[in-house]
Amino acid sequence: MTGIRAERGSIAPLGIGLLAFTAMMMLTSIGAASLFIFQKRLTTVAEADALFVAGTGENSESFLALIDSDQFSDLQLSDELLPDARTVKAVACASWKPVFRIALGVGPKVICSHASARLSD
Q1: Exposed e or buried b for every residue in 66-76, given b needs 16+ CB within 10 A?
Q2: Which of 18, 80, 116, 121 is packed most tightly, with the most Cβ within 10 A?
Q3: Can you tell me where the transmembrane regions are (predicted)?
């Protein structure tokens, strides 16, 4: 029994490991939240574009001139009228940059969002 009591170790490696794990999880969560919020904002732009095109009959370039596109890097909008001639499909794509660039292999990515709007009678 004296052998077990005599073998004292430090809890410091456990604390350092726990701290590193917690920091990694926080950075990952913040990065994921940033991507989620960016995608939701892009969906809002795509939905507004689809409604604008369906309501006015103009194209995405006219909508892009009306909004503040400086909030997105490389914002691209496109729209098309589907074969039923009543539904407009809009696609919004923009470049997302991660909040923290320390993660390996994670760089700027192009994120796209889709939305549709139907013309009313």
Answers
A1: eeebeebeebe
A2: 116
A3: 12-38
| 72 close to 94: Cβ distance less than 8 angstroms | yes
* Closest among 28, 78, 23 to 53, alpha carbons compared: 78
3-state SS string over 66-104?
Answer: HCCHHHCEEEEEEEEECCCCCEEEEEEEEEECCCCCCCC
Cβ-contact 54, 117 below 8 angstroms? yes
Identity of the amino acid at 15: G
Residue 23, φ and ψ in degrees, nearest 5: -65, -45
Q: 10 Å Cβ neighbour count for 50?
A: 25
Put simply, whether the predicted model's pTM sits higher than 0.85 gets the answer: no
Q: What are the tokens at 40? A: 């939701």
